[in-house]
Amino acid sequence: MASYILKRLLLMIPTLLGVLILTFTMVQFVPGGPVEQMVSQLQGRDSGGERAAVSGAGYRGRQGLDAQRIEEIKTLYGFDKPVHERFFQMLGQFARFDLGQSFYQRKDVWELVKEKMPVSVSLGLWTFFISYLVAVPLGVAKAVRAGSRFDFFTTLIVLIGYAIPGFVLGVALLVIFGGQLQWFPLRGLTSSNWESLSVGAKVVDYLWHIALPVTAMVLGSFAVTAVLTKNSFLEEIRKQYVLTARAKGLSERQVLWKHVFRNALIPIITGFPAAFIGAFFTGSLLIETLFSLDGLGLLSYESVIRRDYPVVLGTLYLFTLIGLATKLISDLCYVWVDPRVKFD
Protein backbone atom coordinates (compact mmCIF):
# COMPACT_ATOMS: atom_id res chain seq x y z
CA MET A 1 0.00 0.00 0.00
CA ALA A 2 2.76 2.45 0.97
CA SER A 3 4.75 1.74 -2.19
CA TYR A 4 1.62 2.15 -4.31
CA ILE A 5 0.81 5.52 -2.72
CA LEU A 6 4.40 6.68 -3.18
CA LYS A 7 4.37 5.60 -6.82
CA ARG A 8 1.12 7.45 -7.47
CA LEU A 9 2.41 10.59 -5.77
CA LEU A 10 5.55 10.51 -7.91
CA LEU A 11 3.47 10.03 -11.06
CA MET A 12 1.50 13.17 -10.20
CA ILE A 13 4.58 15.32 -10.87
CA PRO A 14 5.04 14.50 -14.59
CA THR A 15 1.26 14.49 -15.08
CA LEU A 16 0.95 17.97 -13.59
CA LEU A 17 3.95 19.20 -15.57
CA GLY A 18 2.47 17.80 -18.79
CA VAL A 19 -0.82 19.60 -18.23
CA LEU A 20 0.92 22.89 -17.48
CA ILE A 21 3.32 22.59 -20.45
CA LEU A 22 0.50 21.88 -22.91
CA THR A 23 -1.67 24.72 -21.59
CA PHE A 24 1.20 27.20 -21.38
CA THR A 25 2.29 26.33 -24.93
CA MET A 26 -1.22 26.79 -26.33
CA VAL A 27 -1.51 30.12 -24.54
CA GLN A 28 1.51 31.43 -26.46
CA PHE A 29 -0.20 30.87 -29.81
CA VAL A 30 -3.64 32.19 -28.93
CA PRO A 31 -4.20 35.61 -30.54
CA GLY A 32 -5.65 38.54 -28.68
CA GLY A 33 -3.50 38.36 -25.53
CA PRO A 34 -3.37 41.07 -22.88
CA VAL A 35 -0.68 43.03 -24.74
CA GLU A 36 -2.69 43.03 -27.97
CA GLN A 37 -5.84 44.00 -26.10
CA MET A 38 -4.12 46.92 -24.38
CA VAL A 39 -2.55 48.12 -27.63
CA SER A 40 -5.94 47.89 -29.35
CA GLN A 41 -7.60 49.91 -26.61
CA LEU A 42 -4.93 52.63 -26.72
CA GLN A 43 -4.99 52.82 -30.53
CA GLY A 44 -8.75 53.26 -30.53
CA ARG A 45 -8.57 56.51 -28.52
CA ASP A 46 -7.35 59.94 -29.33
CA SER A 47 -4.59 61.74 -27.43
CA GLY A 48 -7.08 62.86 -24.81
CA GLY A 49 -8.12 59.31 -24.02
CA GLU A 50 -11.58 59.53 -25.64
CA ARG A 51 -12.91 59.40 -29.17
CA ALA A 52 -13.57 62.79 -30.71
CA ALA A 53 -17.33 63.05 -31.00
CA VAL A 54 -17.87 66.79 -31.12
CA SER A 55 -19.13 68.10 -34.43
CA GLY A 56 -16.35 69.83 -36.34
CA ALA A 57 -13.56 68.29 -34.25
CA GLY A 58 -13.24 65.37 -36.66
CA TYR A 59 -12.22 61.82 -35.86
CA ARG A 60 -8.45 61.45 -36.18
CA GLY A 61 -8.48 57.68 -36.58
CA ARG A 62 -6.61 55.06 -34.64
CA GLN A 63 -3.54 56.50 -33.00
CA GLY A 64 -0.27 54.61 -33.49
CA LEU A 65 1.95 53.53 -30.59
CA ASP A 66 5.70 53.74 -30.70
CA ALA A 67 7.91 50.74 -29.95
CA GLN A 68 8.89 52.06 -26.53
CA ARG A 69 5.26 52.25 -25.40
CA ILE A 70 4.63 48.69 -26.60
CA GLU A 71 7.70 47.48 -24.70
CA GLU A 72 6.37 49.16 -21.58
CA ILE A 73 3.08 47.30 -21.98
CA LYS A 74 4.96 44.00 -22.43
CA THR A 75 6.97 44.71 -19.29
CA LEU A 76 3.77 45.50 -17.40
CA TYR A 77 2.37 42.03 -18.15
CA GLY A 78 5.72 40.23 -17.92
CA PHE A 79 5.93 39.43 -21.64
CA ASP A 80 9.33 41.12 -22.01
CA LYS A 81 11.00 37.89 -20.83
CA PRO A 82 11.67 34.81 -22.99
CA VAL A 83 9.04 32.08 -23.03
CA HIS A 84 11.12 29.49 -21.17
CA GLU A 85 12.03 32.01 -18.47
CA ARG A 86 8.36 32.88 -17.91
CA PHE A 87 7.47 29.20 -17.74
CA PHE A 88 10.06 28.36 -15.09
CA GLN A 89 9.13 31.49 -13.17
CA MET A 90 5.54 30.27 -13.17
CA LEU A 91 6.62 26.82 -11.94
CA GLY A 92 8.57 28.44 -9.11
CA GLN A 93 5.50 30.40 -8.06
CA PHE A 94 3.27 27.32 -8.22
CA ALA A 95 5.76 25.33 -6.15
CA ARG A 96 5.27 27.94 -3.41
CA PHE A 97 1.49 27.80 -4.02
CA ASP A 98 1.61 31.34 -5.31
CA LEU A 99 -0.95 31.38 -8.14
CA GLY A 100 -0.06 34.88 -9.31
CA GLN A 101 -2.13 38.01 -9.78
CA SER A 102 -4.93 38.70 -12.24
CA PHE A 103 -4.04 41.05 -15.10
CA TYR A 104 -7.38 42.84 -15.07
CA GLN A 105 -8.82 42.56 -11.58
CA ARG A 106 -5.53 43.35 -9.82
CA LYS A 107 -6.16 40.65 -7.22
CA ASP A 108 -4.35 37.47 -6.29
CA VAL A 109 -5.79 34.38 -7.95
CA TRP A 110 -6.17 32.81 -4.49
CA GLU A 111 -8.31 35.76 -3.44
CA LEU A 112 -10.47 35.48 -6.54
CA VAL A 113 -11.00 31.75 -5.97
CA LYS A 114 -11.99 32.41 -2.35
CA GLU A 115 -14.43 35.12 -3.44
CA LYS A 116 -16.14 32.95 -6.05
CA MET A 117 -16.06 29.67 -4.13
CA PRO A 118 -19.12 30.23 -1.87
CA VAL A 119 -21.43 30.26 -4.89
CA SER A 120 -19.93 27.11 -6.41
CA VAL A 121 -19.84 25.37 -3.03
CA SER A 122 -23.51 26.15 -2.47
CA LEU A 123 -24.49 24.73 -5.84
CA GLY A 124 -22.10 21.79 -5.67
CA LEU A 125 -22.82 20.58 -2.13
CA TRP A 126 -26.60 20.75 -2.50
CA THR A 127 -26.38 18.90 -5.82
CA PHE A 128 -24.05 16.30 -4.31
CA PHE A 129 -26.11 15.57 -1.18
CA ILE A 130 -29.46 15.51 -2.97
CA SER A 131 -28.07 13.21 -5.65
CA TYR A 132 -26.70 10.68 -3.18
CA LEU A 133 -29.35 10.86 -0.44
CA VAL A 134 -32.24 10.44 -2.88
CA ALA A 135 -30.74 8.58 -5.83
CA VAL A 136 -29.10 5.72 -3.87
CA PRO A 137 -32.30 4.65 -2.00
CA LEU A 138 -34.24 5.08 -5.23
CA GLY A 139 -31.77 2.87 -7.08
CA VAL A 140 -32.04 0.18 -4.40
CA ALA A 141 -35.84 0.28 -4.56
CA LYS A 142 -35.73 0.01 -8.35
CA ALA A 143 -33.41 -3.01 -8.16
CA VAL A 144 -35.62 -4.82 -5.63
CA ARG A 145 -38.72 -4.08 -7.74
CA ALA A 146 -37.03 -4.60 -11.12
CA GLY A 147 -39.58 -5.03 -13.89
CA SER A 148 -42.48 -3.63 -11.88
CA ARG A 149 -44.57 -0.57 -12.69
CA PHE A 150 -42.64 1.39 -10.07
CA ASP A 151 -39.39 0.56 -11.85
CA PHE A 152 -40.84 1.46 -15.26
CA PHE A 153 -42.31 4.83 -14.30
CA THR A 154 -39.33 5.93 -12.18
CA THR A 155 -36.95 4.96 -14.98
CA LEU A 156 -39.04 6.98 -17.42
CA ILE A 157 -39.00 10.03 -15.15
CA VAL A 158 -35.26 9.72 -14.46
CA LEU A 159 -34.38 9.37 -18.15
CA ILE A 160 -36.56 12.33 -19.13
CA GLY A 161 -34.84 14.42 -16.47
CA TYR A 162 -31.43 13.25 -17.68
CA ALA A 163 -32.28 14.04 -21.32
CA ILE A 164 -33.20 17.66 -20.52
CA PRO A 165 -30.07 19.86 -20.38
CA GLY A 166 -29.68 21.71 -17.11
CA PHE A 167 -29.72 25.17 -18.66
CA VAL A 168 -32.90 24.38 -20.63
CA LEU A 169 -34.60 23.26 -17.44
CA GLY A 170 -33.23 26.37 -15.74
CA VAL A 171 -34.83 28.61 -18.37
CA ALA A 172 -38.15 26.81 -17.94
CA LEU A 173 -37.98 27.13 -14.15
CA LEU A 174 -37.16 30.83 -14.42
CA VAL A 175 -40.00 31.52 -16.83
CA ILE A 176 -42.61 29.54 -14.92
CA PHE A 177 -41.71 29.88 -11.23
CA GLY A 178 -39.68 33.07 -11.38
CA GLY A 179 -41.51 35.05 -14.05
CA GLN A 180 -45.12 33.97 -14.32
CA LEU A 181 -45.84 32.66 -10.82
CA GLN A 182 -43.14 34.78 -9.12
CA TRP A 183 -42.61 32.17 -6.43
CA PHE A 184 -38.81 32.35 -6.56
CA PRO A 185 -36.29 35.15 -7.23
CA LEU A 186 -34.78 35.48 -10.70
CA ARG A 187 -31.16 36.10 -9.73
CA GLY A 188 -28.58 36.14 -6.96
CA LEU A 189 -27.79 33.89 -4.02
CA THR A 190 -29.34 36.18 -1.37
CA SER A 191 -31.56 39.24 -1.21
CA SER A 192 -30.20 42.78 -1.11
CA ASN A 193 -31.31 43.20 2.53
CA TRP A 194 -29.80 39.87 3.63
CA GLU A 195 -27.49 41.45 6.22
CA SER A 196 -30.41 43.01 8.10
CA LEU A 197 -32.37 39.76 8.35
CA SER A 198 -32.52 37.51 11.39
CA VAL A 199 -30.75 34.13 11.40
CA GLY A 200 -33.91 32.19 10.57
CA ALA A 201 -34.87 34.65 7.85
CA LYS A 202 -31.37 34.40 6.35
CA VAL A 203 -31.69 30.61 6.10
CA VAL A 204 -35.11 30.87 4.46
CA ASP A 205 -33.90 33.58 2.08
CA TYR A 206 -30.85 31.52 1.09
CA LEU A 207 -32.90 28.36 0.45
CA TRP A 208 -35.44 30.45 -1.46
CA HIS A 209 -32.74 31.72 -3.81
CA ILE A 210 -30.88 28.40 -4.22
CA ALA A 211 -33.93 26.24 -4.98
CA LEU A 212 -34.19 26.84 -8.74
CA PRO A 213 -30.48 26.61 -9.70
CA VAL A 214 -29.99 23.45 -7.61
CA THR A 215 -33.05 21.87 -9.19
CA ALA A 216 -31.66 22.67 -12.64
CA MET A 217 -28.28 21.13 -11.77
CA VAL A 218 -29.31 18.04 -9.84
CA LEU A 219 -31.23 16.09 -12.48
CA GLY A 220 -28.23 14.97 -14.54
CA SER A 221 -26.13 13.60 -11.67
CA PHE A 222 -29.28 12.33 -9.95
CA ALA A 223 -30.18 10.15 -12.93
CA VAL A 224 -26.67 8.73 -13.32
CA THR A 225 -26.40 7.81 -9.63
CA ALA A 226 -29.84 6.20 -9.51
CA VAL A 227 -29.29 4.03 -12.62
CA LEU A 228 -25.78 3.08 -11.51
CA THR A 229 -27.08 2.01 -8.10
CA LYS A 230 -29.88 -0.06 -9.64
CA ASN A 231 -27.59 -1.87 -12.10
CA SER A 232 -24.98 -2.54 -9.43
CA PHE A 233 -27.55 -4.04 -7.06
CA LEU A 234 -29.11 -6.14 -9.82
CA GLU A 235 -25.71 -7.58 -10.69
CA GLU A 236 -25.04 -8.56 -7.07
CA ILE A 237 -28.54 -9.96 -6.42
CA ARG A 238 -28.08 -12.48 -9.24
CA LYS A 239 -24.84 -13.90 -7.83
CA GLN A 240 -24.45 -17.28 -6.17
CA TYR A 241 -23.72 -16.04 -2.65
CA VAL A 242 -27.17 -14.39 -2.53
CA LEU A 243 -28.86 -17.70 -3.33
CA THR A 244 -26.75 -19.35 -0.62
CA ALA A 245 -27.73 -16.72 1.94
CA ARG A 246 -31.41 -17.16 1.11
CA ALA A 247 -31.06 -20.96 1.31
CA LYS A 248 -29.69 -20.56 4.85
CA GLY A 249 -32.97 -18.95 5.87
CA LEU A 250 -31.90 -15.30 6.07
CA SER A 251 -34.63 -12.75 5.59
CA GLU A 252 -34.73 -10.64 2.44
CA ARG A 253 -33.79 -7.56 4.45
CA GLN A 254 -30.70 -9.30 5.89
CA VAL A 255 -29.66 -10.55 2.47
CA LEU A 256 -30.07 -7.12 0.92
CA TRP A 257 -28.49 -4.89 3.55
CA LYS A 258 -25.94 -7.23 5.11
CA HIS A 259 -24.59 -9.05 2.05
CA VAL A 260 -25.60 -7.28 -1.14
CA PHE A 261 -25.35 -3.66 0.00
CA ARG A 262 -21.60 -3.59 0.71
CA ASN A 263 -20.58 -5.23 -2.56
CA ALA A 264 -23.05 -3.27 -4.67
CA LEU A 265 -21.86 0.08 -3.34
CA ILE A 266 -18.24 -0.40 -4.46
CA PRO A 267 -18.60 1.54 -7.75
CA ILE A 268 -20.65 4.22 -5.97
CA ILE A 269 -18.47 4.68 -2.90
CA THR A 270 -15.27 4.85 -4.95
CA GLY A 271 -16.67 7.83 -6.82
CA PHE A 272 -17.80 9.49 -3.60
CA PRO A 273 -14.53 11.38 -2.78
CA ALA A 274 -14.22 12.81 -6.29
CA ALA A 275 -17.85 13.94 -6.26
CA PHE A 276 -17.54 15.43 -2.77
CA ILE A 277 -14.30 17.32 -3.42
CA GLY A 278 -15.53 18.36 -6.85
CA ALA A 279 -18.58 19.92 -5.22
CA PHE A 280 -16.30 22.56 -3.68
CA PHE A 281 -14.53 23.53 -6.89
CA THR A 282 -16.92 22.72 -9.73
CA GLY A 283 -18.67 25.68 -11.26
CA SER A 284 -21.49 25.49 -13.79
CA LEU A 285 -21.05 28.29 -16.30
CA LEU A 286 -24.52 28.13 -17.86
CA ILE A 287 -26.38 27.84 -14.55
CA GLU A 288 -24.32 30.60 -12.93
CA THR A 289 -24.86 32.88 -15.92
CA LEU A 290 -28.58 32.08 -16.14
CA PHE A 291 -29.25 32.82 -12.48
CA SER A 292 -26.70 35.67 -12.22
CA LEU A 293 -24.48 33.78 -9.78
CA ASP A 294 -20.84 34.89 -9.68
CA GLY A 295 -19.01 31.59 -9.14
CA LEU A 296 -15.96 29.67 -10.33
CA GLY A 297 -17.59 28.67 -13.61
CA LEU A 298 -18.13 32.29 -14.61
CA LEU A 299 -14.63 33.21 -13.39
CA SER A 300 -13.02 30.53 -15.58
CA TYR A 301 -15.03 31.57 -18.63
CA GLU A 302 -14.28 35.27 -18.25
CA SER A 303 -10.57 34.63 -17.66
CA VAL A 304 -10.35 32.62 -20.90
CA ILE A 305 -12.27 35.23 -22.91
CA ARG A 306 -10.19 38.11 -21.53
CA ARG A 307 -6.93 36.14 -21.83
CA ASP A 308 -6.28 36.57 -18.12
CA TYR A 309 -3.45 34.03 -18.15
CA PRO A 310 -2.57 34.06 -14.43
CA VAL A 311 -6.16 33.14 -13.57
CA VAL A 312 -6.34 30.50 -16.32
CA LEU A 313 -3.06 28.81 -15.42
CA GLY A 314 -3.40 29.29 -11.66
CA THR A 315 -6.86 27.75 -11.43
CA LEU A 316 -5.83 24.99 -13.84
CA TYR A 317 -2.87 24.11 -11.61
CA LEU A 318 -5.03 24.13 -8.48
CA PHE A 319 -7.88 22.08 -9.93
CA THR A 320 -5.54 19.57 -11.62
CA LEU A 321 -3.67 19.03 -8.36
CA ILE A 322 -6.93 18.52 -6.49
CA GLY A 323 -8.19 16.18 -9.21
CA LEU A 324 -5.08 13.99 -9.07
CA ALA A 325 -5.20 13.76 -5.28
CA THR A 326 -8.91 12.96 -5.35
CA LYS A 327 -8.34 10.21 -7.93
CA LEU A 328 -5.79 8.62 -5.60
CA ILE A 329 -8.25 8.77 -2.69
CA SER A 330 -10.93 7.19 -4.89
CA ASP A 331 -8.62 4.29 -5.75
CA LEU A 332 -7.74 3.77 -2.10
CA CYS A 333 -11.45 3.57 -1.31
CA TYR A 334 -11.55 0.27 -3.19
CA VAL A 335 -9.42 -1.28 -0.45
CA TRP A 336 -11.48 0.35 2.28
CA VAL A 337 -14.75 -0.98 0.83
CA ASP A 338 -13.41 -4.35 -0.31
CA PRO A 339 -10.25 -5.60 1.49
CA ARG A 340 -9.87 -8.31 -1.15
CA VAL A 341 -8.61 -5.71 -3.62
CA LYS A 342 -4.80 -5.75 -3.85
CA PHE A 343 -2.90 -3.07 -5.71
CA ASP A 344 0.02 -5.36 -6.47
Description of the structure:
The structure is a single chain. This protein is 72% helix and 0% strand. With 344 residues, the chain is mainly alpha-helical. The chain has a domain at 116-307 and 326-337: MetI-like (MetI-like fold). Helix 9 runs antiparallel to helix 10 (252-264) and helix 14 crosses helix 15 (309-337). It starts with a helix and ends in a 7-residue tail after the last helix. It is a multi-pass membrane protein. The chain crosses the membrane at residues 9-30, 119-140, 152-177, 206-229, 264-291, 311-337. This is Inner membrane ABC transporter permease protein YejB.
What's the CATH class of the domain at 116-307 and 326-337, please?
A: Mainly Alpha
Distance between the termini: 8 Å
Mean pLDDT over the residues: 80
What is the count of helical runs?
Answer: 15
> Structural class, judged by helices and strands?
mainly alpha
Number of DSSP strand runs = 0
Keywords: Cell membrane, Membrane, Transmembrane, Transmembrane helix, Transport
Organism: Polaromonas vacuolata
GO biological process, one term: microcin transport
Domain ABC transmembrane type-1: 117-330
